[in-house]
Fold this sequence. Notes:
The structure holds 2 protein chains of 2 kinds. Chain A is mostly beta strands. Chain A has helices at 103-113, 237-240; strands at residues 18-19, 27-41, 54-55, 60-68, 76-87, 90-100, 117-119, 121-126, 130-137, 140-153, 163-169, 172-178, 182-197, 209-224, 229-231, 241-243. The longest helix of chain A is centred in the middle third of the chain and has 11 residues, at 103-113. Chain A is globular, with a radius of gyration of 17 Å. By secondary structure, chain B is of the alpha/beta class. Chain B has one domain: TIM Barrel (Alpha-Beta Barrel). Chain B is 42% helix and 16% strand. Chain B contains 12 helices and 11 strands. Chain B has an 8-stranded parallel beta barrel, surrounded by 7 helices. Chain B has a two-stranded antiparallel sheet with strand order 5-6. The longest helix of chain B is centred in the C-terminal third of the chain and has 20 residues, at 244-263. Chain B is globular. Chain B starts with a strand and ends in a 10-residue tail after the last helix.
Amino acid sequence: MPIFGELELGTIAEELPRLRDLDTEAWELPKAEILQVACEIADGSRALLPRALHPAIPEYVTFVVTRYPESPVGPFDLAQVRLMARAGVHPRGYVVGAVASTASAASELRARWGYPAAPGEITLRRYHDRVAAMVRREGQTILEMALIDPEIVSGGDLQYIHGITLARVDGASQLIQVDPHYTLHNAARGRAHVSRFDAAAWHATPITLTTPISASVSTSDTDLPRIRFVMDPEAPVVRGTRKVR
Amino acid sequence: MKFGLFYELSVPRPWTRESERTVYDNALEQVKLADELGFDQVWAVEHHFLEEYSHCPAPELFLTACAMVTKRIRVGFGIVVCVPEFNHPIKIAERTAVLDILSGGRVEVGTGRSATWTELAGFNASPDVTKKSWDEFVRCLPKMWTSEKFEFEGEFWSMPRRTILPKVYQRPHPPMWVAVTSPGTELDAADRGLGSLGLTFGQFAEQEKRIAEYRRRIQLCEPVGEFVNDQVSTVNFLYCHEDDAVALQTGRQMANHFNYLAAQLISVRETYPSKSYPSLGLLPQLRRQATGPEASEQAGEGLCLGGPERITRALRRWEACGVDRVNFLLNTAETIPQADVLASLRLFAREVMPAFNGSKS
């Protein structure tokens, strides 16, 4: 059996986002700009990964910075650090840290989908030779990354992996599957470059970046959907998954 | 229809000093028995870094050992990865020839290009050009085996005029195949006059359609070798037991374990957008089989798990689809005790094989 995560849930349970319930209404999020950078990491991240999940082979992270020009809480940007994993046989991105550009977005993302979002400043800029993003919190740059030399690809060449958050629901810790839909209008890929990553600021101290993998950028109509599945973070998902709807 | 074995050589955790040796020893014992029972071929893949799923980076060494303990069974060297960072084409030609000599002309060669980020990045190979390097390799290999002297200048490799030695034992050269997982690759095989070495499980209707198109297309091929290999091979699980229910339960456990381990790997498309890998290949199908509606069926469509009658029915369907050969995975991560694997092979040979042409009765 593949190895599992080794997160000591008790050490973070009290800090987890608290969901009101699992009846979160969907948000339609048209014309989103999504910059994603993937990078292999050194061993040692298993301490961050819930015991229900398997680490990817090799271990890697994705940084996802998304600009949502329209949403029920107004325009906002969201940056995520995701530790890539397997929930049983399914690839999933476990969200270890998130920053939202408005306080209301951070609050709603925590309460509705369990994103561990904190308010901060996010920039996402397109240049002719790169697409760059920067995330700042409390006066410090905690992520600076770019897609270098964009090259147009078909939307079908991109695959977005669904996310998983860890939150408290009715007093218990639960993994929440967040599985948006994407209708891509354009897409490009390029080389990945991460010039600054403050792991501690993302509650991801064990993560050390090693080999850049790839970067992509797209414009897409997407959503944050209703919650469909939740999982027991301490049990293998084949036993611990519950279908909500 | 001919039958063979197919090895990934999966090794379960916890890994001990003896665990890998046990897997190799068990496989050799199975191959020896299969040879005695009349199985036609044994294949071994080339994989790297695929924890638990496959500990088989040097198939030609394993197959040499197979050849030394058997008399008739053919040895399938493949899938050999035709990407220069993995294998220099001269070395592929030379190792194939040595294996062909040592086995007395029993080699078949399966070619491919890897489908995982785990492996390609491990060798610092770009996924964008693997199809092109594979194409260059398969066009060179037959000439390297058959020409007295060979020289080449290509995009991915070049060599001045030299005599590549030794030459293969078979004349004109061993049959060549292409690993087929993604839809469309069977047409790449057909266009080059190469056999279709299918690595997907089940789904009769889909396979039948693809095989028909392969058969049509290969009529128009420009062969890369000295002859056209127009055979279609597919892979399947095998667990045969007198008690159908026992066979289904045990076999299903083995198949699910295989699918589970395969799903842990990082496919190229998961993390590296590339036109060179337009589909996810084998992995989505295995995920569906492990978790989708098929998982709750007694046995997935066309899987050779069950009593002899059930397996015979499945193979009849494959035969009707146009499949010439079926290669079986006998175990995954040693989930089935070795004695039971051997018993399954014996029962299959006694009760199922005689119903099909081309195999020992």
